[in-house]
């Protein structure tokens, strides 16, 4: 007898349900003979793709790493002195390995469930404290997407925060980075307000001004005293934003002390690799009074039900989930993992370490400036931090070429000017090489501690005095701090995260591995094209494969979150209508079921949102659609639909909806966040879409990072190609960031390029068959869950054949009415079973949306079912009067270790029911560090920086008391 060896493919490892027995059992439960029969029943025939995906054959894990190595080797690693908002930095190895490369951090979800997120919330609070201290502004968020879009958000915040009428203009100093000016301009064009670029060192221009934007240090490296222009702006009733370099603020008078209202910038140089332009965490700090208009996530301090201080996201009512088109921004996924990395860098170095890095960086720049000056070169400014700009009339290209030959990249500002930026990695040897490029001899090193700028600009105030930045010095301490923080959280490395709409699937190690290779991570976004061939090949490849998967004509990878893809896609639609002379088309139809970012993005793109109702069965109400189209005849710009819908349904009449909107002259935007139910089965570009964004951090395996990074590529049909975001290639070649034909850029270059190898590897390893199998399995698992839970919790919507798509909504409203137990109680009780909650209250209040994804095995799915069934039994105990709602394990969930080992346990249920409601928990038990958190209290009394250690003492006393 011969045994045919079966090689395990990556598909077998990515997909959880692989054994024929499991498959049979699941299909049997659903009453189908094979997987294809189930898929045929669930997915409408008229949207099915005719052919299988045309993709290269699947590679093994080893094969993909070899291929990625080949691509990485096509990039040329040079000493990066280009600057322009991106500085090389050293990621401390412990942070690289224990945070950036650690699934306990990178596979976590956004901390909406604060009880299981205390570790990352503390890290993000450290980030806020760090930014607030360095900018000298009292409130900072965590985080924004990139420096340029953060500056654009600041402009919008100044307009909201200023009582002036809408026609007051925004004035931007000409000494901002060109990419920042380009992104601000794009936002202003969409919203129809005026932006004037002026030389603010010559004073304020005439006219009514809502806000001004300055940059410190400037685009040309100048460290300027802004106090006068800031005072003048305030006299004129304008708000002031300063785009600042965080590292420089350890030495330079911070924006808050100069009178600025807002400061924004990038935290990249705090240990986050260049990543060919992103992902990096941007920051925004504000003065008091603007907090309710602040965009992005804000971590605040509150308390749990035992009075223990606890962290949570604060002021959520500003955000798109709740406020939709009236939200402060469209930002949903931000840059949590990178903000955490930057905050840990500050914890690791402490204030004196950061200051030493800044002084060294500054000293190297001064050495270069002095040596070049002595050699007769025209150094532009005497007051600078890390960037020395040199006039080299007609010689810029020649100087750049010589520098490159010597292994260094300078910045080409124009044909007559070059910029040289130092950073944490700059050494004496690098400095010698730099001056050698100009033919100058060995320089006299400047002494660290001397400063090249005025005494008035020298920072006197303290920063990072909180103990967290001053108590962790040894690597052992750091190692344990990182472990302690990650241990407080539930991420995918411990449990299924069945969050509907978020697609928390496997982020495999082979997919992740290459992103920190220096040949990828160490490339500056503005290197010459011939130094980034590997990157460009990988990006072109990924683009082509995503185009094949979606059925569109082209795609831009620039948007660094789904929300930014929406914005870019809607701008493409807007540009198209304008080019056709249809500028009056400004109505965006959005179904009531839509994700909050849809409405917020439409507003940012200058559109009016009109809501279309959903019918009782969850589909779009066609009669209401017709009515809204008719009432806005000639004004319809677009409809935004999610497919399958956020109700977990393949609407059978999607083609009909698309046709009616097209007939009315509108464009169809299909939100592709749910592509995990379509890949390999149907293509939005073929069944009616004109444009879609994808969430590579959902469907295409980029980890969620505890709330970012993300990539939200925008894909378009042929006729919208000319309106994709500004062409980054042109930008890199010219050094100036000019958008093509007035098409706005939405972020920097290729956005979050650094994480693209993950999606590239995912597609390469699964191939056409694996991708399609993943989709089918996602459908199977969701339908199996729905079928098994249906008798315990009604499934809110089902489509053809009583089936759902890749997720399902459990409706608790009737149970809530009968017993008082809420969906939130269930979400919190799941923590006691070791599970992360499903999506709570979206898209329907009072429900839970469950998405198992294809990566969960049947055992884990059964454990989840077991937990939900046990919880349902507890709900019946409330109904039966075994305990009241207030004294039930549901309302008192989650249970901390402190609560269940207390010697005065006097609850209406046993300790065992509280802590070990199912037997398996006796061996593997996660205890949340805090109990149920009072969110409202935290909002009433807003604290957004690290509380003093004394704040934690009462709880510690109570523990001591219990001991004795
Ligand atoms: C996640 C999601 C978005 C927003 O994507 P982000 O990357 O978080 O900005 C938009 N629409 C739907 C349906 C989503 O699930």
TrEMBL record:
Modification type N6-(pyridoxal phosphate)lysine: residues: 698
Molecular function terms from GO: glycine binding; glycine dehydrogenase (decarboxylating) activity; pyridoxal phosphate binding
Short name of one Pfam family: GDC-P
GO biological process, one term: glycine decarboxylation via glycine cleavage system
Domain Glycine dehydrogenase C-terminal: 774-895
Subunit and interaction comment: The glycine cleavage system is composed of four proteins: P, T, L and H.
Taxonomic superkingdom: Bacteria
Keyword check for Oxidoreductase: yes
Protein name (database record): Glycine dehydrogenase (decarboxylating)
Stretches assigned to the Glycine cleavage system P-protein N-terminal domain: 12-438, 472-727
UniProt-listed Gene3D superfamilies: Aspartate Aminotransferase, domain 1, Type I PLP-dependent aspartate aminotransferase-like (Major domain)
EC top class, as a word: oxidoreductase
UniProt family annotation: Belongs to the GcvP family.
E.C. designation(s): 1.4.4.2
Reactions listed under catalytic activity: N(6)-[(R)-lipoyl]-L-lysyl-[glycine-cleavage complex H protein] + glycine + H(+) = N(6)-[(R)-S(8)-aminomethyldihydrolipoyl]-L-lysyl-[glycine-cleavage complex H protein] + CO2
Keyword terms: Oxidoreductase, Pyridoxal phosphate
Any single Gene Ontology cellular-component annotation: cytosol
UniProt cofactor(s): pyridoxal 5'-phosphate
Keyword Oxidoreductase: yes
Function as written in the Swiss-Prot or TrEMBL entry: The glycine cleavage system catalyzes the degradation of glycine. The P protein binds the alpha-amino group of glycine through its pyridoxal phosphate cofactor; CO(2) is released and the remaining methylamine moiety is then transferred to the lipoamide cofactor of the H protein.
């Amino acid at each position: 007898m011969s045994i045919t060896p079966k090689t395990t493919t990556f598909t077998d490892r990515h997909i959880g349900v692989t054994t024929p027995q499991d498959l049979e059992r699941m299909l049997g439960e659903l009453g189908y003979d094979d997987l294809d029969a189930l898929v045929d029943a669930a997915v409408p025939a008229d949207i099915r793709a005719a052919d299988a995906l045309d993709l290269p054959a699947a590679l093994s894990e080893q094969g993909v790493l070899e291929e990625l190595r080949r691509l990485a080797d096509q990039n040329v690693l040079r000493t990066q002195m280009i600057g322009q908002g991106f500085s090389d930095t050293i990621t401390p190895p412990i942070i690289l390995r224990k945070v950036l490369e650690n699934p306990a951090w990178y596979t976590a979800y956004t901390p909406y469930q604060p009880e299981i997120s205390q570790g990352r919330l503390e890290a993000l609070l450290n980030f806020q404290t760090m930014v607030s201290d360095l900018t000298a502004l009292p409130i900072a968020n965590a985080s924004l997407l990139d420096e340029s879009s953060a500056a654009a958000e600041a402009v919008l915040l100044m307009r909201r925060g200023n009582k002036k009428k809408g026609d007051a203009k925004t004035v931007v100093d000409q000494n901002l980075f060109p990419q920042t000016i380009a992104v601000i301009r794009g936002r202003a064009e969409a919203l129809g307000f005026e932006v004037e670029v002026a030389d603010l060192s010559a004073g304020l221009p005439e006219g009514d001004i809502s806000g001004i934007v300055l940059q410190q240090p400037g685009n040309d490296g100048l460290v300027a005293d802004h106090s006068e222009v800031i005072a003048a702006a305030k006299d004129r009733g304008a708000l002031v934003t300063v785009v600042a370099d965080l590292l420089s603020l350890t030495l330079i008078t911070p924006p808050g002390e100069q009178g600025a209202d807002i400061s924004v910038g990038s935290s990249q140089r705090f240990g986050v690799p260049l990543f060919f332009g992103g992902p990096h965490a941007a920051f925004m700090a504000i003065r008091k009074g603007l907090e309710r208009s602040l965009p992005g996530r804000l971590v605040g301090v509150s308390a749990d039900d035992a009075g223990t201080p606890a962290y949570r996201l604060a002021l959520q009512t500003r955000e798109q989930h709740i406020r939709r088109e009236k939200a402060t921004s469209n930002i949903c996924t931000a840059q949590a993992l990178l903000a955490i990395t930057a905050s840990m860098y500050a914890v690791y170095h402490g204030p004196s370490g950061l200051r030493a890095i800044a002084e060294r960086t500054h000293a190297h720049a001064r050495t270069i400036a002095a040596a070049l000056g002595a050699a007769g070169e025209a150094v532009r400014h005497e007051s600078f931090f890390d960037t020395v700009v040199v006039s080299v009339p007609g010689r810029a290209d020649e100087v750049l070429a010589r520098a490159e030959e010597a292994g260094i990249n300078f910045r080409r500002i124009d044909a007559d000017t070059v910029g040289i930026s130092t950073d944490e990695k700059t050494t004496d040897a690098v400095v010698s090489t730099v001056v050698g490029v100009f033919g100058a001899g060995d320089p006299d090193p400047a002494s660290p501690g001397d400063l090249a700028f005025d005494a008035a600009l020298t920072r006197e105030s303290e920063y990072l005095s909180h103990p967290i930045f001053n108590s962790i010095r040894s690597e052992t301490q750091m190692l344990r701090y990182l472990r302690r923080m990650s241990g407080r959280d539930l991420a995918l490395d411990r449990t299924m995260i069945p969050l509907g709409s978020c697609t928390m699937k496997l982020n495999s190690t082979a997919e992740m591995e290459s992103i920190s290779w220096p040949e990828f991570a160490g490339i500056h976004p503005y290197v010459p094209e011939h130094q980034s061939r590997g990157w460009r090949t990988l990006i072109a490849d990924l683009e082509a494969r995503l185009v094949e998967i979606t059925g569109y004509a082209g795609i831009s990878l620039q948007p660094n979150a789904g929300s930014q893809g929406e914005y870019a896609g809607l701008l493409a639609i807007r540009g198209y209508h304008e080019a056709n002379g249809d500028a009056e088309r400004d109505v965006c139809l959005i179904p009531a079921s839509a994700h909050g970012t849809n409405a917020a993005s439409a507003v940012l793109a200058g559109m009016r949102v009109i809501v279309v109702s959903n019918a009782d069965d969850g589909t779009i109400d066609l009669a209401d659609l017709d009515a809204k189209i008719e009432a806005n005849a000639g004004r319809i710009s677009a409809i935004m639909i999610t497919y399958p819908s956020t109700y977990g349904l393949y609407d059978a009449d999607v083609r009909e909806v698309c046709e009616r909107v097209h007939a009315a002259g509108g464009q169809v935007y299909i939100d592709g966040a749910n592509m995990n139910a379509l890949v390999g089965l149907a293509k939005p570009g073929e069944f009616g879409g004109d444009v879609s964004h994808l969430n590579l951090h959902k469907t295409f395996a980029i980890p969620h990072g505890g709330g970012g990074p993300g990539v939200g590529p925008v894909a378009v049909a042929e006729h919208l190609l000319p309106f994709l975001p500004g062409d980054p290639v042109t930008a890199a070649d010219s050094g100036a960031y000019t958008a093509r034909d007035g098409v706005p850029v939405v972020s920097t270059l290729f956005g979050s390029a650094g994480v693209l190898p993950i999606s590239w590897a995912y597609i390469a390893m699964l191939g056409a068959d694996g991708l399609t199998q993943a989709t089918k399995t996602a459908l199977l698992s969701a339908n199996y869950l729905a079928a098994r839970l249906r008798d315990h919790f009604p499934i809110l919507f089902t489509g053809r054949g009583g089936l759902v798509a890749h997720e399902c909504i459990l409706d608790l409203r009737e149970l809530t009415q009968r017993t008082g137990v809420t969906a939130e109680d269930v979400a919190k009780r799941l923590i006691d079973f070791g599970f992360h909650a499903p999506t709570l209250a979206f898209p329907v209040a009072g429900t839970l949306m469950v998405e198992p994804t294809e990566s969960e095995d049947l055992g884990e799915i059964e454990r989840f079912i077991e937990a939900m069934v046990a919880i349902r039994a507890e709900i019946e105990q409330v109904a039966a009067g075994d305990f009241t709602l207030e004294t039930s394990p549901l309302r008192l969930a989650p249970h901390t270790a402190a609560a269940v080992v207390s010697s005065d346990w006097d609850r209406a249920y046993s300790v065992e029911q509280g802590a070990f409601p199912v037997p398996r928990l006796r061996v593997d038990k996660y205890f949340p560090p805090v109990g149920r958190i009072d969110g409202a209290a935290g909002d009433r009394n807003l604290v957004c920086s690290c509380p003093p250690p004394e704040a934690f003492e009462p709880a510690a006393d109570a523990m001591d008391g219990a001991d004795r």
